[in-house]
Amino acid sequence: MTSSPDAQLATMMENLEANTGKSLDEWIALSRKGGPAKHGALVSWLKESHGLAHGYANLVAHMTFKSDAGMKLKGVPAAGRLEPAGSWNAMVTHRVRLESAEQVDAEVLQWIRQAYEQA
User: Fold this and answer.
1) 58 and 92 assigned to the same domain
2) How many structural domains are present in the chain?
3) Residue span of the structural domain in which 102 resides
4) Residues 10 and 50 grouped into a single domain
5) Which of 5, 76, 87, 119 is deepest in the core (most CB within 10 A)?
6) DSSP letters along the chain, please?
7) Which of 45, 43, 36, 38 has the alpha carbon at shortest distance from 59?
8) CA–CA separation, 36 vs 27, rounded Å?
């Protein structure tokens, strides 16, 4: 019987702490403090420097960088929190780095609305 993706993720997160001695939050904090700033490089760093298996390293990297919001905003100059997407994601023109849901404020919602209306 196949479990849901949410159940699989919960099991993997439980096993991460049981197998490594660190919770997902601890791995994320460690990655943000001293790890590389790109997903693939962070996966390699976690595997090589900390001995994580590929699946766990990929999970930590994904959760470390999951907060960025990307949007396609034609003709809108990047400024302040609205950064150019660059090589982060070729499908979008801009990104906003978010570390918590509280940072999704009226400004971010306006950019998302604008991108939706341009689509």
Assistant:
1) no
2) 2
3) 69-118
4) yes
5) 76
6) -PPPHHHHHHHHHHHHHHHHSS-HHHHHHHHHHHS-SSHHHHHHHHHHHH---HHHHHHHHHHHHTT-EEE--TTPPPBTTBEE-GGG-TT-SEEE--SSGGG--HHHHHHHHHHHHH-
7) 43
8) 13
Residue 94: strand pairing partners: 71, 84
The reply to whether 20 and 32 lie within a common domain is yes
- Residue 22 shares a structural domain with residue 49: yes
Render pLDDT for 74-115 as a digit per residue (tens, 0 to 9).
999 999 999 999 877 789 999 998 876 678 888 998 999 999
Amino acid at 119: A
Residues of the chain with pLDDT > 70, as a percent, come to 94
pTM of the model: 0.57
